[in-house]
Amino acid sequence: MLKRLMSVGLMLVLMLSLLAGCGKSVTDKGTNENAESAANFPEKGITAICPWSAGGGTDTVLRGLTQATEKELGQTITVANQTGGGGAIGHAAIISAPNDGYTVGMITFELNSLPPQGLVPFTSADLDPLLRVNMDAAAVTVKADAPYNTMDEFIEYAKAHPAELNIGNSGAGAVWHIAAGLLAEQADVEFSYVPFEGAAPAITALVGGHIDAVSVSAAEVQGQVQAGDLKILGVMSDERLELFPDVPTMKEQGYAVSFGTWRGIAIPTGTPESIKTILAEAFKKGLESEEFVAYAKNSGLVVAYQNSDDFKAFIATNAEEVATVMKSLGLAAK
Amino acid sequence: MNFDLLLNGFANILQPSVLILVFLGVTGGIMVGSLPGLTATMGIALLIPFTFGMPIESSMAMLLGIFSGAIYGGSISAILIRTPGTPAAAATLLDGYPLTLRGEAGRALSMSVFSSFVGGFTGALIMTFLSPQISKLALEFGPAEYFALSIFGLSIIISVSGGSILKGLIAGVFGLLIATVGLDPISAYPRFTFGIMDLFEGPSFIPTLIGLFALAEVFKGVENIVTQPKIESKITQLLPSRADIKISAKTIIKSSIMGTFIGAIPGAGSDIAAFVGYGEAKRTSKHPEEFGKGAIEGIAAAEASNNACTGGAMIPLLSLGVPGDAVTAVLLGAFIMQGLRPGPLLYRDHLDVVYSVFASMMVANVVMFIVGTFGVKFFAKVITINRNILLPVIFLLSLVGAYSMRNSMFDVGLAIGFGVLGYFLQRFEFPVSPILLALILGPMAEGNLRRALVISKGSMDIFFMRPISAILLLAAVISIATSVIKQRKLDEKMKMSE
């Protein structure tokens, strides 16, 4: 009796897996040949993969954006957090998702910093970027009572005291670590890098006077700067930030560094062009919606829209830059 | 301190519409907390989008309700089925589950809700009156101090080792070894990852916890699923007896204060607080041999401490703008979305909001006490369910819980693997809690040791020349010494009586 039940069960499993296999090939064919089906797209809910955990910065941006975009698409967008591996798991999940347009994902800077470490089997070329959402420039922030007020004074001090300035960042090989490395390279100085577990503990350590500076984004130190505990010496953006119009950029102070983290929406490669257009337009409208603009303003997010082609080119340039710096920081695979 | 504003805060919260939100928050929090794999952090993160439209006072009241409810809720499953619903409840099961096995689940649960309330309320009071002062202390904590704190925490391994210190240390070191898996915290070098992306951040904590405790218990339960008689649980009263309160009073007060302070240190959360509270209670107890076998003070210590931690964790969030733990990191996002930035500026410009957060915290704890007390009877029914129904349900819930942390099948496998390991560890009488403690504190110790050495350019002086760090290291040495001496005496006593 038990044996029979088992064999029936096994048969069922086999049949189901065969069916699932068929289903997959049918839909694959459908999406690639059948462009007119895009007219009805989307016919069901869409999943948005978030490579970072619920409640974090990327997650809240994605949830805000999908809420605004749902209205444009007329379908719900469900955020699925597939976290781990410093973002590797989520990015890999977006890459290997079915390319029928019903799975999109938020990609972040780590897409470019993971491959040089030689740890992940993908690069940014394995996805199709849809649009860039925001860009947050790095900033050099020190204690309000620190003896330096400009980048020049800071760099001068660093030159006189090589590898003595402790610069905190949000994690080994993370974006702000690389930002500080880039600055050191440009200014020809040596820093000592102190990676923390996230930006918040690094900022707290700076306020408490345990380190000399942090290289995290200006938005992240906003509260402490406004409260008068910290001061920003320079931001690594092309133009001054709306948030801190009095803080000069690095370029103004003679250091050619423009660097920051970015986020965007991407889809798996091979998604039909017509569906891609629908998604790109919907997300663009969501990004420009009153709702999202207000949210971005509250959280100090610098919205930096780029269309698919520009975003793709941007990612490629960024990838090269990141790989070079990581090599000189000793963070890249040999 | 501004009493007018505090009263105003209470007036904001004590409206029917807001009270209903707090009530919903607490009830939801207790449910989220009692289910393994659903943590306070997740509950709050998922609810935040729904609080967008509410005024900040109401949304904070509700979110703090979830926070308090969830940290208490974790103890329910810890006591009844030896499954900590949240990591914070891992110390509660040490004495809670033995009490359940003795048919005293009701007594354990009512002590848990009582001490959670006292702890939570004390934390809220300390937060209300001493926030600015305590937050200054929190800023003194740099990498050296965190390292010393984690060493002090690790010294508690001796207290949670049970009968054999040697076996406890073996388990602890095994936990530390597991904690080294993943990218190392300072140079991002992969260690023991075998190229598996899922292991880059080390084995995920919640699935490991679920495996070591819940699944191990299920596997053990299967051995006698048919033969074991149902556990009877008599519930005579909803509140703890006067005698129980009398024994635990000192412990509860001590744990409440320690828990608040540990919560106030950014990066040290309710799980660490619970273990420190438990370790301290056992170390200073007159009958430490009862700990781990169903000592009511064990529950009181752990629960008072972890709920006090909720108030403590709000201190650096409100006054410095830095979150005290994972939950408050998510709450920081909730503030920002409402256009408010916690920190000194919140105190300057929105003092009314600060005070309504104080008021919410106190009200949330009172509501938690009421819901929890009336729930005791209802929760305790769980163990009267037939075991051949209960065990499969726990098994399934555990797997779902392991999956849901990261939507990952890898984590399900991880939980099962640790479940098998936990089963055999129990079989050979190895304590499991030291592994857990090592998993929590190992990464903290390693990261901060190396961070401190980067800052000091390699000099060890940084650990001994800074007062807080030196005191904590000394406390660790004293804690180890007294625990070992006590254990020796106990062993001798046992031998004599044999």
Write a concise keyword list for the protein shown above:
heterodimer, A: 334 residues, alpha/beta, D-Maltodextrin-Binding Protein, domain 2, 2 domains, six-stranded mixed β-sheet, five-stranded mixed β-sheet, 11 strands, B: 498 residues, mainly alpha, 20 helices, globular
Characterise the protein shown here.
The complex is a heterodimer of chains A (334) and B (498). With 334 residues, chain A is an alpha/beta fold. In chain A, strand 6, helix 6 and strand 7 form a beta-alpha-beta unit. In chain A, helix 6 crosses helix 11. Chain B has one domain. In chain B, 72% of the residues lie in helices and 1% in strands. In chain B, a hairpin with a 6-residue loop joins strand 1 and strand 2. At the A-B interface, helix 2, helix 3, strand 7, helix 7 and helix 8 of A face helix 3, helix 13 and helix 18 of B.
Q: What topology emerges from the helices and strands here?
A:
The complex is a heterodimer of chains A (334) and B (498).
Chain A: H1 2-33, E1 46-50, H2 57-73, E2 77-81, H3 88-95, E3 103-108, H4 110-113, E4 127-137, E5 139-143, H5 151-160, E6 166-169, H6 175-187, E7 192-195, H7 199-207, E8 213-214, H8 218-226, E9 230-235, E10 260-268, H9 273-288, H10 290-298, E11 303-306, H11 308-329
Helix pairs in contact in A: 2-9, 2-10, 6-11
Chain B: H1 3-13, H2 16-34, H3 40-47, H4 56-81, H5 93-101, H6 105-139, H7 143-154, H8 165-179, E1 182-183, E2 190-191, H9 205-223, H10 242-264, H11 270-283, H12 296-320, H13 326-337, H14 344-349, H15 351-380, H16 387-404, H17 409-427, H18 433-455, H19 461-465, H20 467-497
Antiparallel strand pairs in B: 1-2
Helix pairs in contact in B: 1-15, 2-4, 2-15, 3-4, 3-13, 4-5, 4-6, 4-12, 4-13, 4-15, 5-6, 6-10, 6-12, 6-15, 7-18, 7-20, 8-18, 9-16, 9-17, 10-11, 10-12, 11-12, 16-17
